[in-house]
Specification:
heterodimer; A: six-stranded mixed β-sheet; 18 helices; globular; B: 337 residues; mainly alpha; two-stranded antiparallel ribbon; 15 helices
């Protein structure tokens, strides 16, 4: 049995999520798929499972060309995938979720007895006990991921693709998943396994394929490689020296930052998806970069600080403040710039000056001079009466940044602001941010792009980068430590003492 | 983890989303019985059901659409269209049976057009059904501008028939669509309906035929509008192109009071039926209390608003926290570990 993906390409807004990616999977071989944020792993799985239509490329199953235009079509070809975003439905019961795609029937009706028996069998394999009728939404998150896995193995599949379910699982759960994968391997099934935990990959898989920026870089047997070699393929750099003193230096830098003028101090900031919490101090004029693999809690930090989730108690300039909602936090001197301009940033049908004035005049009730802001940030525009959507992404982001810096915030919260912006605009944005930091504005800068954090924070006196892993701060990097390799290494959880 | 004991029937009722509507209905009934001049007996119950059946039909169809995360405001218009259509056909000499079939098929097609627009063309359901409601209402007006009288008494005779002198046969208009729902609910499609209502993209990636489900529910709601049209034709012994005008929105209110979440994926059609009967009781209360005509509508709407909020709070845990948070009643305490 084999599955071949041939020259698959997929463009998202001019950026290659997949670029001529070719991959051959054979039965009985457990393949790991490894790569950094945005390297195209999930997109590749989505293409093979019918969720995403590729712009170009062909798929062959046992040498026969197949078209997979929907998840249903994929299931007919016995291709099953678990999803990182979870395809389970919280209101439905465990049994209904697991059997959803092919419920056992008696005549016309759902055969509830058989459904329960089938479910019980799957739950037993997962070591999950007897919660067949509980709504899945009432279960803890690690169990939900196990159910997602159970839903996949309930089906009669030839090809199983597991997209990062183990990152939310406990160690003993991972052992269970590992045993089940081994059983399927013996049966000669094709298995593709995505994980960021190197130790898991080495213990579960036979071969590994590394991806970087939408391309397949290499495929090797795991017995013939090691952490460093794989990391080199992921980052694309040959001289790879991984800093092993990360933890020590982390403690040093914490001690250092305590000495300085603390602007913001927050204790016990909850990261919901991992049920963990984070303590964070930010000094005046400091740039705190936040790195990590997607969904490890980075954006939770800035969202919570801006009042976009539950109420939060913080200490700002030494005074205790409760952040209830964004209006409240704006009045306290916080600002929020999101990379998701469409949703959180621009007022699309309004012009430049209105987009700049909105916070200052409507929320803070102060006069503004929009033209000054446009000039200060060197936005390229024809007239301030033009719609914001007529500008390029980079200039739009400058306008939105202008909106906020005009309110003279104490702390700028940036949530992946350089997403979808070209290189030149990025470097201009960085210049602006450095200037603002020198002027005493602090900022927390979340980015999914390691290069961006390196350019912003490396070798800067007033900058540091914290790396999140599974909802905890895995490492803090400063000065010359801020390198792409160190960031990736730490975001795989390697800086964590427990690993 | 210990296995969960199945709930006893009583306990599972009080925990169900339909419970608030049932409570509301009984409270309103008691109110009518003891505090108004109405004589609360069998003939009251019969006339109550007689006039209520057409709307209950719509509520069943609307409930299913809302359950899958959609909305249908064209049901009233489909009812009007089917109503004048069947009267015109029968008056024109078509056999009653054939006229009924033609009318029901027309209703299903009208619903199917909604389903096609929402499922395949992917136009927002509110927009789609608003547009089609104007079209279907327009067709009704083309068929006849003025109310018309049905020349044969067959339908209304059937409507007033009673089994064993007390059980009205017209209940069959509700029982048929409700039985269809009960059957669907026990098939895999029933679970798929809830899945699509709760999260369309999760349902899609699970391999569910989302488009098929959508077309199906709109066809079903079209059918219930047709059955409702048959009931109302029998009831009023005639056709009127404006008959169903306000019924869509009343049906939606009944559905919400019945504990079916407008966000989709939660609730049961039984609740919607009780929600509908509660609304009727409410009108009765206001009429029997002798409230000034000018105040009637205002008072009714005010009570409606309160009951909608109340029933959402009672039936939906998530919505409850959202609403209570919104009015500042609950503030999540921040515990420090």
């Amino acid at each position: 049995m084999n599955l071949e993906l041939k020259n698959i390409s997929k463009l998202y807004g001019g950026i290659h999520a997949l670029k001529n990616a070719s991959l051959i999977l054979t039965g009985g071989d457990v393949r790991a798929l490894l790569g950094g944020n945005g390297s195209g792993k999930s997109t590749l799985i989505k293409v093979a499972s019918g969720l995403v239509k590729p712009d170009d490329g062909e798929i062959f199953l046992d040498g026969v060309k197949v078209a997979i235009h929907s998840p249903k079509a994929a299931k007919r070809l016995k291709i099953v995938a678990t999803s990182q975003e979870l395809s389970i439905l919280p209101n439905l019961s465990v049994g209904e979720n697991i059997t959803l795609c092919n419920m056992p029937t008696r005549g016309l009706f759902t055969n509830n007895n058989k459904m329960r028996q089938d479910t019980r069998r799957v739950l037993e394999r997962l070591g999950l006990g007897d919660d067949i009728d509980t709504p899945v939404g009432d279960l803890p998150i690690n169990k939900m991921y196990l159910i997602e896995f159970g839903k996949a193995i309930f089906q009669d599949f030839d090809i199983l693709m597991i997209d990062e379910i183990t990152s939310a699982l406990y160690r003993e759960d991972v052992e269970i998943v590992k045993d089940i994968i081994k059983q399927y391997k013996k049966l000669g099934k094709i298995i593709l396994f995505v994980s960021h935990r190197m130790s898991e990959i080495f213990s579960i898989c036979d071969t590994v394929t590394v991806m970087r920026s939408g391309e397949i870089i290499s495929t090797v047997a795991l017995s013939q490689t090691n952490n460093e070699l794989l990391l080199r393929d992921m980052t694309g750099k040959s001289d790879n020296t991984v800093d092993s003193n990360i933890i020590k230096e982390f403690q040093q830098s914490v001690a250092e930052s305590k000495k300085r003028d603390i602007l913001l101090s927050v204790k016990d900031l909850k990261i919901k998806s991992y049920n963990t919490s984070i303590d964070l101090d930010v000094s005046r004029g400091e740039i705190v970069g936040v790195a990590g693999l997607q969904g490890h809690g980075q954006s939770d930090i800035v969202k919570a600080l801006f009042g976009l989730s539950d109420p939060l108690d913080i200490e700002l300039e030494g005074k205790p403040v409760r952040i209830d909602n964004p209006k409240h936090s704006v009045k306290q001197g916080l600002a929020y710039v999101s990379g998701d301009r469409e949703k959180d940033g621009s007022f699309k049908s309004h012009d430049l000056s209105e987009n700049i004035k909105v916070v200052q005049e409507l929320v803070l009730k102060k006069k503004t001079n929009a033209l000054e802001v446009l000039k200060q940030l060197s936005v390229k525009y024809a007239t301030y009466k033009q719609k914001i959507t007529s500008l390029s992404g980079g200039n739009q982001q400058k306008v939105i940044l202008g909106r906020w810096i005009h309110t003279n915030p104490l702390l700028l919260l940036a949530n992946d602001p350089s997403k979808g912006i070209d290189v030149k605009a990025r470097s201009e944005l960085r210049e602006i941010l450095w200037e603002l930091a020198d002027g005493g504005m602090s900022m927390i800068f979340v980015s999914s792009d390691e290069n961006e954090l390196v350019s912003l924070c490396a070798n800067k006196k007033n900058a540091r980068v914290i790396v999140l892993y599974e909802g905890k701060i895995a490492a803090t990097l400063k000065g010359s430590q801020v390198t792409r390799d160190n960031l990736i290494f730490a975001s795989l959880g390697k800086g964590d003492k427990n690993e | 983890m210990k296995p969960i004991q199945p709930l006893s029937p009583m306990r599972s009722f009080t925990k169900s989303t339909s419970a608030p509507a049932v409570y509301l209905f009984f409270v309103a009934s008691l109110f009518v019985a003891f505090f108004t001049s109405a004589t609360f007996d069998l003939s009251y119950a019969e006339s109550f059901m007689n006039s209520n059946i057409p709307l209950i039909c719509l509520v069943i169809g609307e409930g299913l659409v809302v359950l899958t995360g959609g909305i249908d405001i064209s049901l009233g218009a489909i009812l009007s269209m089917s109503n004048v259509l069947i009267v015109t056909l029968i008056n024109g000499g078509m056999p009653v049976g054939a006229a009924i079939v033609v009318m029901l098929v027309t209703s299903i097609v009208a619903g199917g057009i909604n389903g096609f627009m929402v499922g395949v063309v992917r136009i927002n359901p509110l927009l789609t059904t608003y547009a089609t409601s104007i079209i279907y209402g327009g067709i009704a007006l083309v068929i006849t501008r003025t109310p018309i009288f049905l020349h044969t008494p067959v339908l209304s005779d059937f409507y007033m028939l009673e089994l064993l002198e007390f059980l009205p046969l017209n209940l069959i208009f509700i029982l048929i669509p409700y039985a269809i729902w009960k059957i669907i609910k026990r098939t895999p499609v029933g679970t798929h309906l809830y899945a699509v209502g709760e999260n369309e993209s999760s349902a899609y990636s699970s391999g569910i035929n989302v488009i098929g489900i959508k077309i199906f529910v709109y066809c079903f709601s079209g059918l219930t509008a047709g059955i409702g049209a048959l009931a109302i034709t029998s009831l009023v012994q005639g056709g009127n192109p404006l008959l169903g005008e306000s019924m869509s929105l009343t049906a939606i209110s009944a559905v919400v009071i019945g504990g079916i979440s407008l966000a989709g994926g939660k609730g049961d059609l039984g609740g919607g039926i009780f929600g509908c009967m509660f609304l009727f009781m409410l009108s009765n209360i206001i009429i029997f209390l002798g409230v000034n005509t000018f105040w009637q509508e205002l008072l009714k709407t005010l009570i409606l608003l309160i009951t909608v909020v109340l029933s959402v709070i009672l039936s939906d845990k998530q919505e409850r926290t959202k609403i209570l948070k919104g009015i500042g009643y609950v503030r999540k305490p921040i515990d420090s570990k």
